[in-house]
Structure formats: structure tokens, C-alpha cells
Amino acid sequence: MPHAYIAGPLFNEGERWFDEQIDQIAREVGFTTFLPHRDGKEAKTYEGTERVQRIFIEDVNGVDRADIVIANLNGITTDDGTAWELGYAYAKGKHLVGVYTDWRLQFNHQTVNLMIECSLHKLVRSLNELRDYLAAYKAE
């Protein structure tokens, strides 16, 4: 079964909820997943700077194990941690999918930072489009 790392901002309920929707779709299509705020368990046993280092290590290991990285790119700008995860995954040769559903797209042609957009294998603009793309990717 292909393994997906779900990247995205996770600092409020709305961000976590949307990341969880991406995760649910990936699982429904047949992927195993790593969702940092759900699966990063070891770091929770540490305190202070040691905890921050463990979170970093868990997330890097999560990207390393993944076949595909699916990133929530919604927001005024892409979350900086998500941007780092995408850059790292790109350097590792991972398959990259961005999810950007902001309806303001209709008012200009640039969706996300060009360095991020050009590193993606696919940029989808809805959760339904994500489902269709992941099903086709898995079938390959």
C-alpha cells in the first residue's frame, strides 16, 4: 500500500480539520498515512527544546517513509513548515501534491509561490479533485 505524508498548518482547529479531510481521502483511496498532529506520538513524551527536536525528527522520518506528500497549501501564504516539508520531499524525489481551494484564485493567475507550485507533480483545487487524482496515482 502506498504511504502518504500529510503536510499542512496545524495550529488551529480549522487547519487541523482540513488536514484531517485530506488524510481521510487518502485513506479511503487506499493509502496508509502519517498525519503529524495525530501520529507524532514520541515527541509528546518530551519537554521544551527536546520536544521540538523530537517533533522535527518524527516529521523528517515521516517524509522519508512516504511515497507521496500531500500538502494543504490554503492560506494567505503557504505555512512555512509545510513549505520546508515540500522542499525536503522534493529533494528526496517524493511525489508531491498540493491542495489549494481558495476561491480567490479566480481573480489572479498565480495560486501559490512559484517555487512551490513548480515543484508539485499536481496542484488540485478541491477535495473531490484530490480524491480523483489519488485514485489514478494509486492505479498506476
Determine the strand fraction and express it as a percent band: 15-25%
Percent of residues in helices: 40-55%
Spatial gap, N to C terminus: 12 Å
Which sequence of SSEs, written as H and E, runs from N to C? EHEHHEHEHEH
**Average pLDDT number:** 92
Largest sheet: 5 strands, parallel
CATH class: Alpha Beta
As residue ranges, the low-confidence spans are none
Radius of gyration, Cα only, in angstroms?
A: 15 Å
> How is the largest sheet built, in terms of strand order?
2-1-3-4-5
What do these coordinates show?
- By secondary structure, this protein is of the alpha/beta class.
- The chain has a single domain, classed as Rossmann fold (3-Layer(aba) Sandwich).
- It is 50% helix and 15% strand.
- It has 6 helices and 5 strands.
- It has helices at 13-29, 36-39, 48-65, 80-91, 114-119, 127-139, and strands at 3-7, 32-34, 68-72, 95-99, 122-124.
- Strands 2-1-3-4-5 form a 5-stranded parallel beta sheet, sandwiched between helices.
- Strand 3, helix 4 and strand 4 form a beta-alpha-beta unit.
- Helix 1 runs parallel beside helix 6 (127-139).
